[in-house]
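Re: duplicated header lines in exported C-alpha cells

Our pipeline writes sequence and C-alpha cells for each protein into one text file. With two proteins the header for the second block appears twice in some exports. Here is an export where it did not happen, for reference. First protein block:
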Amino acid sequence: MKRILLHACCGPCSTHCVRALREAGLEPVICYSNSNIDTEEEWERRLAALRAFAGAEGVEVRVDPRDAAAWEREVAAGFEGEPEGGARCDRCFRFNLRRAAAEAARIGVDSFTTSLTVSPHKSSPRVFAAGHAAAEAGRSAFGASGGPGAAAPVFAEFDFKKKGGFQDSVALARKYGLYRQSYCGCRFSRRPLSPSLP
C-alpha cells in the first residue's frame, strides 16, 4: 500500500485514524510531533501509549524530539491569553504540522495528514488550513521546482471525526488499555475544553 505520514497527537486519537487510512488503501507511518505538550512526563506518557498501540498494529512510529522552547517562541509569545480554540491553537497546528511535513519529506513520503481532526474539540477546516499552510511552507523552503522541493509532501484532508470516528477512537483506546489525557497538552489548555467545534 502507498504510505502516508500521520501526524499523531497521542495513542487514542491514532487508533481510529490508522484504521480509516488502511481502509482507504493507505499505510500510515506515525509521526509523534508535539512540542506543545507542557511537561516531559506528559510527553513521554502519551508517547508510551502511542507506541503500545502502534506495536500491536504493526505501525512504524517516528518521533520528533520535543522542543518546548521553540514552540513557546513561535506559538505562545503574545498569545498566552487566547481562549482554548483561539488563534494560539491555529499557530500550534501550523507549528506541529510543519515539523510533520518535514519528517514526511525526510523519509520520502509524498503526503501527510493528522489525527487532530478526530477530536470534537478541533475544527477540521482550521486544521486543514494549517496542514495546507505547512505543506506550502515546505515547498517554499525547498524551492518551487527541482531538487528536494519537487518531492515536498502535500497535505491530505481526512476528517476523522466523521462517521463516529471519535467514538470509535474512544472504544479502541479502551480495547488497547491506552492512557487518555484530559486536556490538549499545552499549559494554557489545562482549564476545561471548549464545546465541540464544527
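Second protein block, exported in the same file:
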Amino acid sequence: MIAIIDYDAGNIKSVEKAFQFLGEEVILTRDRNVILNADGIVLPGVGAFGDAMEKLHRYGLAAVIHEAVEKKIPFLGICLGLQLIFERSDESPGVEGLGLLKGEILHIPEESGLKIPHIGWNSLKFFGKGRLFGGLEESAYVYFVHSYYLKAEDEGIVTAVTEYGTTIHASVEQGNLFACQFHPEKSSDTGLKILRNFISVTKGEL
C-alpha cells in the first residue's frame, strides 16, 4: 500500500490516480500509523514552501515524515515535495524545511527568453544509477511546473539534471529517499515507468 501524505497541497489527486492506474492500492492520509505501516510514502504537492511547512507542522506530519525516513520506508517527494525535504527556500526566507537532505531551493534566474514559472517538457540527463530511471533512455522528457529549483549540497545524491537558465538538480536519491522536481504523474509513459520503478522499490525488487 502506498500512503500519499495529505496536507492540503495542490495536485495530490492526480498522483493518487496515477498509482491507481498502475494497479496499486493507495490511500490519502495524515494518520501516523497508516503512514508508518505503508510499503511506500509519497509527498507530492504544488504550492508555496512556507505555507506547506506550516501545514506539515500543524498536522504533525513533519515528525511522522522523519520517523518514516528513519525506518527506511521508501519515500518519494514530488515537485514541492522535493523542495520540502531540503533545508530552506528562497521562496520563504527564515522558514526551515524538513532538512532530510542538505541543500537549498533557489529562484530560477531571470534570463531573456525564459518564462518563469518554468512550465513544460524538458529532457533529463541521468547521473549515476538512479533506481527511478531503470529502463529509461538518456534524454527522456518529463513535465515541469516550477519557479524554484534545487541546488543540492552533495552532488553525489543527484540522479538527474535538466537545463533551464541554469543546471537544475531534477532528481535525487539517498538510500530509500527519492525525490523529483518534475511531475511523473503528468509525464506520460516515461512518468508511469518512474512510478512503476518506485513501486518496485517498495516491493524490494529494486
